[in-house]
Amino acid sequence: MNNGFVETGLSRRVTEWVRHGDPTILLLYGPAGSGKTVTVRHVAAQCGRPVFWVSATRGTNLELLFGLWTLRPTPNGTETFFEEGILLRGLLTPGALLVLDDAHLVAPDLQVLNGLGDSTRELTVPARGRTYPIAEGVCLVLIANPPPRTVASWERERWLIPEQIRDRARVIQTFDALTLEEEVAIARLYFPEDCPDEIVREWWNWRGICAPIAFFRRMRPPSGR
Question: What separation in angstroms does the CA of 155 have from each of 55, 60, 79, 115, 184?
């Protein structure tokens, strides 16, 4: 355990990828509550890299996150200039770790990031009308969920990460990623008095697979947090 965080096989795999950055795109794919975001936040805080974090929503437009034209005052009035967005700033910062959380919500637009995984390492920003060289050492983490069963079949395609991105990425699936020992450690962290080891072990044996970390997080935060 480290600063209220339980080291898991997933966190070790993400740490190893961040250390080497090869390939330059990491896709963490699995159900909500499987520890993807909390793991990346922990690793990002420890890695010593500049971190640019974007949390996508259904209305997020990735091209706007590259930047947009706006007005600024000058001694003679105003002038138009291009204000770089968080995505472009991250891609131009040497050694940066760029994280796109809930990437499934903008899956159809992710192909604009293909250049990060290409040998050319270039990115075209249509709004600016120019191509930028991606800075040395920049890596991208995509955190994505599969479509829930309640999503209509015609909408499921919008949740799927484009093949061009998957082909360029290292993919780590987080379905039932925890071991029994990790489950017990998380139970001790979140329920130091109310969830003894035998309860977790009994639940484990009953299910025959890892109990979802979401169960613990839904209840309450660790003591003192």
Answer: 21, 17, 42, 27, 38
Domain-wise residue ranges, the chain: 9-177, 180-225
For residue 115, the SS3 value is helix
Domain 9-177 coded CATH 3.30.1330.80: no
Distance CA 67, CA 84 (A): 4
Dihedral, 183, 184, 188, 193 alpha carbons, nearest 10: 120
For the chain, the C-alpha Rg in angstroms (whole number) is 20
Residue 48 pLDDT greater than 80, yes or no: yes
pLDDT at 222 over 50: no
Question: Region 143-166: what's the mean pLDDT?
Answer: 88
Q: Which amino acid is at 5?
A: F
- Beta-bridged to residue 173, according to DSSP, are 29
- Stated pTM of the model: 0.78
